[in-house]
Amino acid sequence: MTQRKHKRFYKNVSVGEREGGFVVLLDGKPLKTPSRSAYALPRRALAEAVAEEWRGQGEQIDPDTMPITRLANTAMERVPASRAPVAEQALALGRSDLLCYRADTAPELAARQAAAWDPLLDWLAERYGAKLRTGAGITFVEQPAAALAALRRTVEQLDDFALTGLSAAAAILGSLVLALALSEGRIDAAEAMRLATLDEVFQSERWGVDAEAQARLDRLGAELAAVERFLRLIRA
Question: Quick check: 67 pLDDT over 70?
Fold first, then answer.
């Protein structure tokens, strides 16, 4: 969604260190969140990335060109006030994870899904103790309580910034498994999008590329690339 632009009101952008973290300074004054709360970023690399977005603005400030700033704002404002709902949204995608639903009418697609997705499900089981079941078609697959409990422990232990990145990635990909793999650097954004769109690619091979659908995937890919960068920055 396009956000409203505002006239640029500053000249110089820098990064400073304050108690509790790093701050972005606009003409020497600390940047505030949209609700005017104090800024406190956990990593200098993240603060430098936010500063670069502010530094790169023209005569008007365009929020649509500042994805790292938006994610940081979410981590500082929305997530602390609503951690439980944010975590539940990510966990809901784990309960009905994309990787657990396989094609039941296209054997070739089902084979591609198994080859691409099974290694990640095996990784999830080994890394987090969450062994998820798979099924064919769209019938809901009830996941083991132990696996869901393991996923809950994993998600709930994340700090606000990591939870922000994970939930954003899961929403784009339709998969908590892929989001966890991305957040740990096991896969990159391009690979995550490839894995999340096996069905779309298969259909386009058979019926041709739909320009509108492709434009949507390109937009989601760009959003995911920004999320991947955010996740790297908070690990730096």
Answer: yes
